[in-house]
Amino acid sequence: MSGKELPKIVDKSRAEIEAAIAAIESSNLQQNIKDFAISCIRLAIWLPDALLRHQITVSNLRKLVFGRSDKNKRHSKKPKNDTPSCGNENVIDDNQSINNEEPKKEQRQMLRGHGRLPHSVYKKTIEHQILILDLKSGDPCPMQCGGNLYSIDPGIIVRVKGQNLAAVHKYWIEKLRCALCGYLVSANIPSHIGIEKYDGTFKALLALQKYYVAVPFNRQASFNHLLGMPLPVSTQWQLIEEVGGAALLVFPTLECIAANGELIHNDDSHVKITDIIRYNRLHPDQDRTGTFTSGFISRTAERDIALFYNSKLHAGENMERLLQKRDTHVSTVMQMCDALSRNIPNSFKTILCNCLSHGFRKFDDLKEFYPDPCIHVIERLAKVFGHDEKAHAMTKLERLQYHQKHSKPIMDELHIYLNNLLSLKQVEPNDALGKAVKYMIKHWHELTQFLRIEGAPIDNNILERALKIPIRGRRTWLFYKTEYGAMIGGVLTSIIYTCVLSGINPLHYLIALQENKNQIVKDPVAWLPWNYQDTMAALSLAA
Fold first, then answer.
1. How would DSSP label each residue in 289-347?
2. Backbone dihedral region of 182: left (phi > 0), alpha (psi from -120 to 50 degrees) or beta?
3. The pTM is what?
4. Taking CA atoms, which of 40, 507, 508, 539 is between 20 and 30 Å from 427?
């Protein structure tokens, strides 16, 4: 058999497998052949079970190697929708069929389009006027029909022209020297040229390329060298550090506002900091060796604020430090996270909500192994997510009442079903499905807070989407070198993504922070992403 061919899949019961092994042992085959055949059979039994119990997330590998049996095909009914995970919260409506259907006529018409973008989507453009040279409004018609010309709306064409990351300007300053006394005369340098080699726009672009687009320093240096502009790694870090210094002036104010939010989403992802890794190798007796990127989305009545911390502290400890900045007279904060204990602060009480998408995904990962119970759970949860999507535009009270009317009966029925799976011994408590069921039952109160509390979220998807920003950085530039560099990276990522959540151009904001550092020190509250433009306008008017 070649490596590209898959073996034939044969379903056998445990009794049939044992009978086959007994037949091999009682046969006249040589003992080494018997041992080999029996070992192959036992390996074929053990490997799927090992995948199921220990590495269930590699179900795609299992389907590639073992295929999908006819039995599973007969009994597995495709769920209404895939897991409502980060970036895909579209769930199927109650009245939609499970089977795939062609889109309706109205939907097909909406999908059609020429694919061209209107000129209005381009916000930062260089405007040009192309005028008619030999005619103007009021002139006689060139067709000599007797009429006169008048102005109408101009036509617009868009031409996107490429350029380097930076336009390098080289100025030749004329100099004259007296032949008798040696007096030197130099041309006056215009003020618009500036005194710094790299301007604020270039520094801000580097920061965005690094902490949003996730371009490593070495790759940036190599690419710009190809284009004839040397940009060493050390220079890039020096310029980004200057941007980080300006961002640090407003970051504590953002933390204070975030600490007083009504709802805080938090979670962890892994990060590598080489100085900490080196220290752990030299001191192997350390109690904790892990490093984390802790992400927070604080939701206030007006806006959302993103915070990221790269350090040895996990999300619960960073949450503890953040809540220390919370005003004492503010009501208890609502917290959304997964069920890991390290996400919860020790000394601050929160209204804890757990992510229902995590529970959904546990059954979605198992649907190929246990189709009937998993599909049952997935279909019920899909309906609940569909109700939440419909309630998106409602007020908090209307949303709560809508969920209590439509989602509560579904969740109550699901709770009874999950308990029966265990109490009637329909699942093994310690296998993968049993653990998924026990997870849902154990955290049921936190998973269903949206049925009792106004504004309680149903999932943590907004933060999981936010964590993709540092995660894609980790996958491209792999690590931070120092804890200081990790701190600067967290601050700039926080500033950039807060601008994204607020609909603010992060490039313009980072430029403004660099150009107004003296003003920001005096009043950082006036230089936040959502009000800095008003502050700049007031300063210009006063000037």
1. ---EEEEEEEE-SS-EEEEEEEES--HHHHHHHHHTTS-TTSPPPEEEE-S-GGGS-SS
2. left
3. 0.79
4. 40
User: Helix (H, G, I), strand (E, B), or coil: what is residue 474?
Assistant: helix
Q: In whole angstroms, what separates CA 124 from the centre of its chain?
A: 26
**CA dihedral over 194, 198, 200, 202, signed as positive or negative:** positive
List the beta bridge partners of residue 299: 263, 304
Structure tokens at 192: 């618009």
**Which tens digits make up the pLDDT trace of 281-321?**
999 998 889 999 999 999 998 999 999 999 999 999 999 99
Task: Please give the Cα distance from 365 to 254 (Å, whole number).
Answer: 38
CA distance 206 to 226: 17
| Helical packing angle, 14-25 and 31-54, nearest 10° | 160
Q: Is 267:305 a contact under the CB 8 Å cutoff?
A: no
Q: Please tell me the distance from the alpha carbon of residue 347 to that of residue 203, in angstroms, as a whole number.
A: 41
* Residue 175 DSSP class: E
Q: What are the 10-residue block averages of pLDDT along the chain, 543 residues in total? A: 62 82 88 88 76 54 52 45 43 42 49 69 84 88 89 88 86 92 92 91 96 96 93 96 97 97 96 95 90 96 95 96 94 94 93 96 91 95 96 94 96 96 90 93 96 96 96 94 97 98 96 96 96 95 88
pLDDT, tens only, 153-173: 888 888 888 888 888 889 999
Q: Which residue has the tokens 């209404």?
A: 80
Q: What is the dihedral of CA 336, 339, 341, 342, to 10 degrees?
A: -60
Are the C-beta atoms of residues 247 and 286 closer than 8 Å to each other? no
Backbone conformation region of residue 380, classed left if phi is above 0, alpha if psi is from -120 to 50, else beta? alpha
The number of beta carbons lying within 10 Å of the beta carbon of residue 276 is 22
